Amino acid sequence: MNRHENIKNINLYVKNKINEIYEKYNFDVFLVRNHVQKIVVNEAGKKIVYNSLTGINKLELLLKNILNQLETAYKSLTTDKVQRDSFKKHIINAVDNLLDLKDKNFYASQSMNASLGIQEKAQLEIVFDQSAFDEDGILKKEEVKSDKKSEEDKKKEFSIPGMDETGRDESFYVFDKISKQIEATYDVLRNKLDRTVFKTWLPKNLLSYMEAWEEEMQKNLEKVDV
């Protein structure tokens, strides 16, 4: 078999494997392709090394770091399923909101940098508002304000109306612990494809795990009459 025929057969194999997995699991094609290509071999019979998407690699590492905390918190809510439903929806909502905000700031910054790049030779006049400072450059006392929000205020912003408050509070505390890890991981991703993959698959994975935990709990929990 010549080199051309071998490559043709490899490509056909990959295509068939992608279609097979896509039909079975309904995965996104480009994600399936990314992983299937890892098992392709070259003419010498050696595996061709393909790197997975950075966004997927980072997602896997993040999940390993945060799933244990989420599982412990989720499984502590044993009185009523509405508590766990509330926990689940608050976590997914908080993750979506966090990543939306990160994207808004990221793409706004990119747009601004591109705009400045076009005008890099132009002289920009920068004017500072100094009204909050005295003549010695010291911030006026009346301008010193605390911008710290109370925990109750933060919970209100975090809340989804109508959802169980026990589940909300549990999700609020655990999200406070994992949000910095999510932010730090997402900030590393500068490529649009990596960010899209990460943003799409993080909530999907979290939802999938919580549904699996729920199924496990339904088998083991006894109904408590209150």
Describe the model.
This protein is mostly helical and 226 residues long. The protein folds into two domains: 1-50, no CATH class; 52-119 and 149-226, no CATH class. It contains seven helices and no strands. The chain has helices at 3-25, 29-36, 54-75, 81-118, 151-158, 165-188, 192-220. Helix 3 packs antiparallel against helix 6 (165-188) and helix 4 (81-118) runs parallel beside helix 6. The radius of gyration is 25 Å and the shape is flat. 15% of the residues are buried.
What count of domains describes the coordinates? 2
Runs in which pLDDT lies below 50 for 5 or more consecutive residues are 35-40
Gyration radius, to the nearest Å?
Answer: 25 Å
Give the proportion of residues in helices. Answer: 55-70%
Q: How do the helices and strands line up, and which of them pair or pack?
A:
Blueprint lengths: L2 H23 L3 H8 L17 H22 L5 H38 L32 H8 L6 H24 L3 H29 L6
Question: Characteristics of this structure?
Answer:
226 residues; mainly alpha; 2 domains; 0% strand
How would you briefly describe this protein structure?
By secondary structure, the protein is mostly helical. It has helices spanning 3-25, 29-36, 54-75, 81-118, 151-158, 165-188, 192-220.
